[in-house]
Amino acid sequence: MRFGLTIGEYYPVDSPVHALDPRVKILLVLVFTIAVFAVVNFSGLTAAAALIVGVALVSRVPIRLAVKGVRPLLYLLALTFIIHLFTGAKPWIELGPLHISVPGARSGALVGIRLVILVVGAAFLTLTSTPIELTDAIESLLAPLKKVRVPAHEIAMMMTIALRFIPTLAAETDKIVKAQASRGARFESSNPVTRARSFIPVLVPLFLSVFRRADELAEAMEARAYRGGEGRTRMRRLEMKGRDVLTLISATAVFAGLAWFGRLPLV
Amino acid sequence: MEMANVTFEYLPGTPLAHTALTDINLTISEGDFIALVGPTGSGKSTLIQHLNGLLTPTSGSLSFRGRRVGVDVSPLELRREIGLIFQFPESQLFEHTVADDIGFGLRRQGLTGPEVASRVENALLQVGLDYAHYAQRSPFSLSGGEQRLVAIAGVLAMRPRFLVLDEPTSGLDARGKAAIFDCLDRLNSDGVAILMVTHSMDEVAESARRIIVLNEGKIVLDDKPERIFAHASFLRGIGLDIPKAAELVYKLREKGFEIELDSVSVRSVVDSVAAAVKERCAN
Ligand SMILES: Nc1ncnc2c1ncn2[C@@H]1O[C@H](COP(=O)(O)OP(=O)(O)O)[C@@H](O)[C@H]1O
Ligand SMILES: [Mg+2]
């Protein structure tokens, strides 16, 4: 079992970005995404990258952690680029039987870099906000939709519970894997069937424990008279402060500027 | 088994990095009966996971019978000689029958039919459960204490020469605890070395011949029980109790009784106290 931070896990330090209202951060990620999609030149993408570096510096999160999230996308990026390269319009550069499209190379690079920037930018949301802050923020942002019967509270509660149990189950899995390894189990067979079978001694105890925990949680919630969102008050209140509003407005303005700059006839 | 200058850090290189063990030096000999005690979070569970290669030291080294772990001897080989039983081992049960579950490790080793069956029977005997009565039942139909014994039998079936247990009695009633200790005492008299983690000092006093006290990832005491408990105020300071029997002896000594101690088990304390009282009356 491997330990360590995985992509986009909360990075616990104090910074102005961490302190920002999570709703503001979610909204800004949305605005940033729209702005980056509007950008059609490399100057604009460079500016967007510079903005991300700025956020990284202010938030004191090593940018390396945010960039890690790109790794699973590498194949997708390479494939996108190659498809653009060979399916684009004229002029073509002819390399033997291959026709490489010049505008294709340009648009492929644009799409690829844009995707990297979006993934890295969005990673700062989860790196600087705890999962609980995020679910609270989502509940709060979805609240207006309760009028059209979107179960905002239930969605947030489900997310909270799921997130709450990820570390618990990871620890549980780790313990069961170690316990079975201690009595001779092996998990590294090269034969896929043997390999799949070797996980039965882990999966059976794990499922038993998941169901037991689910039961206990349901009972504990009922014992505390939990019955959904109606009329419930909260312990942690999200409060939009002057600083949050100011950040929302000024960052939105900056992103609008980015979109405008990204559409200028530059390189 | 020898640990030399072992230091272990969880999540190194992240803001959550945490040094759980610092510079551990430890030698465990054949036939030992050791209790590893320490307050919660002192690194007991982390330490024992090094003993069968589940965790690898961040720095320092381990050797088993003179061979370096991870160099001359693989963790897999190590696990055949060193049985490790985790806290709440009953949560690892998964087979349809008790016999199948106990035989799991043996089948992994490539043993078959009669050999597995006889070892399973033997392991059940060692933990004091009747083969005929238990072998074909589902492990999930047993009581908590019985499940734990079955899980322990699953490790004993591998015939380890060295048994490591993490808080084997936590959450059991007095009878369950006694069953575990009977089993451990029997194994130890058959020559199996035992290292058990616990934070109940009363339990430790009965069986262990050596106590290692861990605090904040460091070994702070490593001695015979009767000498360990002389540090009563230090132990209390780090949140540990001392056994009631030993406490009685120290209180009587303060009152001027001369009591010799060569063990802190209840029986021998009763004997020494009786002897001291008799002597005082005779004078
Ligand atoms: N998987 C883990 N990841 C990070 N830290 C851990 C992990 N397991 C234990 N720790 C930390 O290491 C320290 C020692 O823990 P542990 O060995 O479980 O102590 P004990 O068994 O003595 O209660 C504790 O501070 C604990 O928080
Ligand atoms: Mg522990």
Can you offer a commentary on this structure?
With 267 residues, chain A is mainly alpha-helical. Chain A is built from eleven helices and two strands. Chain A has a two-stranded antiparallel ribbon with strand order 1-2. In chain A, strand 1 and strand 2 form a beta hairpin. In chain A, helix 3 packs parallel to helix 6 and helix 5 packs antiparallel against helix 6. The N terminus of chain A is likely disordered. Chain B has 283 residues and is of the alpha/beta class. Chain B has two domains: 240 residues, 3-Layer(aba) Sandwich (Rossmann fold), CATH 3.40.50.300; 41 residues, no CATH class. In chain B, the strands form two sheets. Chain B has a six-stranded mixed sheet with strand order 6-7-8-3-9-10, with helices on both faces. In chain B, strands 2-1-4-5 form a four-stranded antiparallel sheet, covered by helices on one side. In chain B, helix 4 crosses helix 6. The N and C termini of chain B lie far apart (50 Å). The complex binds adenosine-5'-diphosphate (ADP) and magnesium ion. The site of adenosine-5'-diphosphate has 12 residues of chain B, from strand 2 and helix 1.
Short description:
The complex is a heterodimer of chains A (267) and B (283). Chain A is 67% helix and 3% strand.
